[in-house]
Amino acid sequence: MIDLHCHSTCSDGSESPASLVRLAAGAGLSALALTDHDGLSGLREAEEAACSAGIELVPGCEVSCAFSPGSLHILCYFVEEGDGPLQSQLERLRADRASRNERLVARLNELGIEITLEEVAAEAGGDTLGRPHFAAALVRKGVSGSYQAAFDDLLGKGGPAYIPKAFVSAEETLAAAAGSRALTVLAHPLSLSLAPPALESFVISLREAGLTGMECLYGRYAPEERAGLVRIAERNGLVATGGSDYHGSFKPDLAVGVGRGDLEVPDSVLSALKERRTA
Length: 279
Ligand code: AMP
Ligand code: FE
Ligand code: FE
Ligand code: ZN
Description:
alpha/beta; TIM Barrel; 10 helices; globular; binds adenosine monophosphate; binds zinc ion
């Protein structure tokens, strides 16, 4: 079994890349993809840990693209730190995120909440800060009663401290990934909030733009949802991939490899991806 979707402290997970790899090895997985949001900075540590633990690391990331009203995330696989169009795109997204975090601090201060970027950074293990770390800091300071309350009352979409992020289009990410010789997979397709026929036409258009797979076996999906997505993927020549979307204590219902306990992503999924890579 494998897990092709996990977050570490280098984005909004609670486990370091090395500890994530050890969890995966402990769960008996043969391969793990590290897919931190908008960044590749955890890959080196994960690669070293995977080498010691004797499991395969698939280097990756997850890019948030513009889409309304739902959200569109693209998983990129077989991408390393270095030069290339995808790496440059990630660099731009990270710069935008840094300026957004500063505006978010300013907005909270305007609302009478005293909080500093240092306090938020203290909640993160890496250099990528996002709303989850703001939520954790607000809880620690006693401003919000819970992580969820911080989103409901302040940080969530439409809330008084909501600052939208800069987004790239899916087409831009697919093109940049192709230029960096990475493979792309549509993450958790149901978050697009499209009915099955519309979802199918949409993934066909993404496939024409370079998409290789669709994440059908997703940690939080029901068996019948996964089966429906696998049918769409198979009908359209997309690799049906899967992963837990593990975030450690930030999503405590999900475990590496097994999601809520019923996730099984076979090794053959990774073989199918690799075949597309050489094709
Ligand atoms: P960011 O990339 O900084 O906008 O943060 C996005 C992350 O915040 C998501 O991956 C979720 O983990 C979390 N998040 C966003 N909206 C909510 C919400 N309404 N309730 C709880 N968590 C949320
Ligand atoms: Fe995340
Ligand atoms: Fe996602
Ligand atoms: Zn994710």
